[in-house]
Design a protein that fits this description.
Blueprint (H helix, E strand, L loop, with lengths): L1 E3 L5 H37 L5 H24 L7 H33 L4 H28 E9 L2 E8 L6
Parallel strand pairs: 1-2
Antiparallel strand pairs: 2-3
Length: 172
């Protein structure tokens, strides 16, 4: 860990602060958009009969709020997170990415299946491709989880900066 007040680090601190401001601004825009469209969503989605597509839509939509909070907390240099909390946030964020990608894949398969006039051959092809991609992404994520550790590497002029550390004999 580096603890320093050296002015040579100030450009890095400045860029990290700038990035964190944009992250918070994006989170505010997400919540604002969610609040603006909530009335339409209740009318068009919640009052319908629940189907697989409706459930997938709602899960993808509402998983974005805690995901946004995780991203904001992980990127704010004024918030000190322990290494354990940083690792939990990292695992949750990467796991959420995998789950959302899988759900979007299911939605895409359903739409393409309908576009190809419900062709069974096309459905089988799309499902096989989806499984292959999802399994490959899951295996790569598991390998990365095994070797990546988040560590508080720097405390520079009162800001906290975590970064990835490759544990052991990891070569990527």
């Amino acid at each position: 860990m580096i603890i320093s007040n050296d002015p040579s680090w100030w450009p890095l601190i400045s860029s990290n602060m700038f990035y964190s401001y944009w992250t918070v601004a994006a989170g505010v825009v997400l919540i604002y958009d969610w609040m603006l469209t909530l009335g339409q969503e209740v009318e068009l989605i919640w009052r319908q009969r629940l189907s697989l597509m409706t459930v997938l839509y709602l899960v993808i939509r509402y998983i974005g709020v805690p995901y946004c909070v995780m991203i904001v907390l992980g990127n704010m240099p004024s918030v000190s997170l322990t290494d354990t909390v940083s690792n939990i946030i990292n695992y949750a964020r990467d796991g959420t990415n995998l789950v959302i990608s899988s759900m979007l894949g299911v939605i895409t398969i359903a739409r393409l299946h309908a576009m190809y006039r419900k062709s069974t051959m096309m459905l089988v092809f799309l499902v096989i491709i989806w499984f292959a991609v999802t399994i490959a992404c899951g295996v790569l994520a598991a390998i990365a989880f095994k070797h990546i550790v988040l560590d508080e590497l720097m405390i520079l002029s009162g800001t906290y900066m975590c970064d990835y550390v490759f544990d052991g004999d990891a070569s990527f």
